[in-house]
Every structure is written in C-alpha cells, then in structure tokens.
Design goal:
The chain is an all-alpha fold. 86% of the residues lie in helices and 0% in strands. It contains four helices and no strands.
C-alpha cells in the first residue's frame, strides 16, 4: 500500500527519529508501518465494497478542501476590497449629494432671478 521506507528516504528521516517523534521504541517502527498498511488495506477493501477506493476518497477530500480554501480566499479578497473602497464610495456618495444640493440651489436662484427680472420689467 504505502512504502513507508521509501517515504522516510525521500523525507530524509531516520527510523530512530520517526520512532522518537511517534513515542515508540525503534525496533517497533517496522511493526507499526506494517500495522498501518494493514489498516489502510482494510479501509481500501471496505471502500471497494462501496464502489470507491481510499485513493479516490482522499482525492475527493483534497478537491473539497481546495475548493473551500479557494472560496474562503475569494470571500476574504472581496471583503478586503469592500473595506478598501468603502471610504472612497462614501466620499463619492457625499459629493454626489452635495452636487445635487448645489444644482437644486442654483435652479432656485435662477427662478428667483427670473421672477425678479420679470417684476422689474413690468
């Protein structure tokens, strides 16, 4: 199933070191690896009865985690963008309201001036 010996070589980890990290005696490392492989094979056999495999289930879990992390990252970026642009949007909205008020006041002044000019001409 899993070649733990090869895995240790790739990771440059000795059996003594892994035994210390696992909290077991060095002579028990091989037996532990065999037990892990037996359990993994039993799980894989059980999953085969369900029409799947340990490998495909692990891939599915990884895909789900990747999608979840991607969604979280995207959500976080959107939130950061909202926080970044929020003051600018608020400032633009305030300027827009002020411009609308100025235009309204300008129209009112023009009306008053027009009324005043009509009154003088009559």
């Amino acid at each position: 199933m899993i070649n733990f010996e090869e895995l240790l070589k790739k990771r440059a980890v000795s059996k003594v070191e892994i035994a210390r990290k696992m909290g077991i005696e060095s002579p028990n490392v091989n037996r532990t690896f065999e037990r892990y492989n037996r359990v993994l094979m039993e799980v894989d056999n059980f999953l085969a009865l369900l029409g799947t495999s340990l490998s495909s289930e692990i891939s599915s879990i990884r895909d789900n985690q990747t999608n979840s992390q991607s969604q979280q990252r995207s959500s976080r970026l959107e939130h950061e963008a909202e926080n970044f642009y929020s003051p600018y949007i608020e400032a633009l909205q305030t300027i827009q309201k002020q411009a609308e008020t100025i235009i309204s006041q300008h129209r009112k002044i023009e009306e008053l001036l027009g009324t005043s000019k009509k009154a003088k001409s009559e």
